[in-house]
Specification:
heterodimer, A: 148 residues, alpha+beta, Thiol Ester Dehydrase, Chain A, five-stranded antiparallel sheet, 19% helix, elongated, B: 130 residues, HotDog_dom_sf (chain B)
Amino acid sequence: MPLDPSFVGRTYPPTAPYQVGREKIREFATAIGATDPAYHDPEAARALGHSDVIAPPTFPFVVTMAANRQIIEDPALGVDYSRVVHGDQRFAYTRPVAAGDELVCTNTIEDVNTRGGHGFLTTRTDVNTVAGEPVVAVWSKLVVRGEA
Amino acid sequence: MELPTKTFRVTRADLVRYAGASGDFNPIHWSDRVATKVGLPGVIAHGMFTMALVGRAVTEWAGSPDAVVEYGVRFTRPVVVPDDDQGTEIEVTAKVREVTEEGLTRLDVSATCLGEKVLAQARATIRTAR
């Protein structure tokens, strides 16, 4: 079933806040081998002007991947998740995510199209603090592979 | 200007650790049985794990953990990770495309595995070191 192009421009209600934990950032940094002290030691992060340990650049995807279920599991849009492949990924940062942040994601469908039997879905997720300060904007393009 | 090449070894253990840390438990990243069933040659790395390793290269080149302003990639080819102690290797290089008047440096990044490009349109913008 092709993706419904009428979903372009649709914005979903903001997600429940994601509480960024210091140990989660350390765990993520360790998993990718990122040893910079600012990812592990609050004092090192504060010396750079941050409130607590900061997260490596791709950490926000942990938060937005969960938030994007709102779109992927929207029965009206009709994404077959078993056929989904990650196409593109992009981040535009206002500042790094830091431990103690409470992040709210607002998902928008930027583009939907079908080419060569495959569906393409581009989502934009604005990640803001609960106070409404922007932290990072995240774009994902998902490819829904057509039936062979 | 060409930046110094960085090489990252990737083993199955790294994928398991990344799955846990990221919350992405898709079995194509840990089960050969599932990966081959969907037509892959075997277990592949999470695209976001590759992107994270390339992100490490970018922050190391920048000389600062908080200097990245923008970062994007296209995933073009899976990184197959064999079930042995060596795993595989991802090689990352970059060229400076532009240095802007506002103090931003734009990089064109290249990531290869076994000589094949695994990313396209990989670009990062970093603030010049303070």
